[in-house]
Input
Amino acid sequence: MPAVRPDNVLLLPRVPEPDPGVPERPVRQVVHAPTFLEGAGFPVRRPFPGQQVSLRDTDPFLLLDHLGAIEYGPGEAKGAPWHPHRGFETVTYMIDGTMRHRDSNGGGGLIADGATQWMTAGAGILHDEMPTEDLVRHGGLFHGVQLWVNLPRRLKMTPPRYQSIEGNRVALLTSADGGAVIRLIAGELAGHRGPGVTWTPITYAHVTLSPGARLVLPWRPDFNAMVYALSGRGTAGPAHVAFGEGQLVVFGAGAALSVAADRRQPAPAEALDVLVLGGQPIREPIFHYGPFVMNTHEEIVQAIEDFRAGRMGSIPAVELTPGGGPATS
Ligand code: MN
Output
């Protein structure tokens, strides 16, 4: 799992453990992510939305898709060809392999090896999320994550915005015991800032915990808190609740959260790799239809009309690809 690796973990700024008196968040729920086919038919694990966890608990996040890790054979790699979005932000973080992105606003580029692409769909945008031609032709390892962050009513129709965050811009931190690499992608953590600029206040990090390492993070009490295991096994919270690859931990209230990696990791995992995420709940009604997330049914109807009328932009003529129907991811 390449992502971004520091040369020497011990030289990184350390996140001090919160004082013992700080209330630690209990584990409320562990959710096993079901597998879906998305876009043109690529497999994703999706811990939410779903039957198991309430959008009230994940608010301000709407969706988390774990793409791979998958070793594609030649000709197997697929993506999500041109499709619209309105009313939220998509955040794509690539751990292994390369995703190619293009949008109707002129944004685009390659997302690879620890890079993050942040697309504020806002009032509406069309985009195309595909593996590179090289990956399609020759096959290879593909591993990434797409997170959807909701926008509050007053920002749903904000102009689209695109941020490309190279892997070397994430804030690299370590834990008090030096056993964790914390890649802070967005938001604030113990006084450090990640490079992603978010409309909705969130904290989003990719953490690698060495076998036996334990991480305790201060966590804003007004944020929700979740941990998702990309690979490996460990425990979470003061009661040491077990979880592992493909499982989402939802924490209850408190001002700190803890995660620990098992001493023995199941092969081929060499460590516990988790996403740690939380944000300020928006607490507004959610109407979700495919690629549109609004506050009312009428706004969804309007979004479909606007898309059909070409008011969310159009596919650049040079980008028209045969057989690329709209997808939803
Ligand atoms: Mn999309």
Notes: Confidence is low (pLDDT under 50) at residues 323-328. Helices lie at 55-58, 133-138, 297-308. Residues 80, 83, 85, 90, 127, 129, 329 surround manganese (II) ion (CB under 6 Å). The two ends are 24 Å apart (CA to CA).
